């Protein structure tokens, strides 16, 4: 039996980390890149919120987002997505 705390946690996780099914051309590379892109977006969102709340500096947020962007670009290159 599922208790109310477990249900509340699942609802919170669904809200904070929504999962949207992939709807593009179904290739393994596209699906993996889509997952990487969704993770990038979620992490950028968290960094922006931390910076807005004053928990990290603007420069730190920028550097971490820049590093995440480099990782995303590298995954795109390795997966052979796009031009």
Structural notes for this entry:
With 83 residues, this protein is mainly α. Helices cover 72% and strands 0% of the residues. It is built from 3 helices and no strands. The longest helix is centred in the middle third of the chain and has 25 residues. It is flat. The mean pLDDT is 88.
Strand content: under 5%
Distance between the termini: 51 Å
Specify the structural class.
mainly alpha
Average predicted local confidence, pLDDT? 88
pLDDT under 50 segments (min length 5)? none
Please count the helical segments: 3
**How many β-strand stretches?**
0
- The percentage helix is over 70%
Largest sheet: none
* Broad shape: flat
Q: Kindly provide the radius of gyration, computed on alpha-carbon positions and rounded to a whole number of angstroms.
A: 16 Å
What is the oligomeric state here?
single chain
Order of helices and strands: HHH
List keywords for this structure.
0% strand, 83 residues, single chain, flat, mainly alpha
Compile the SSE list and pairings:
Elements (H helix, E strand, L loop, with lengths): L3 H13 L11 H25 L5 H22 L4
Helix pairs in contact: 2-3
């Amino acid at each position: 039996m599922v208790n109310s705390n477990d249900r509340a946690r699942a609802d919170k996780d669904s809200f904070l980390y929504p999962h949207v099914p992939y709807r593009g051309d179904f290739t393994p590379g596209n699906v993996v890149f889509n997952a990487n892109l969704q993770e990038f977006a979620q992490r950028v969102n968290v960094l922006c919120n931390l910076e807005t709340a004053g928990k990290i500096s603007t420069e730190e947020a920028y550097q971490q987002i820049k590093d995440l962007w480099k990782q995303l670009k590298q995954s795109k290159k390795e997966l052979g997505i796009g031009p």
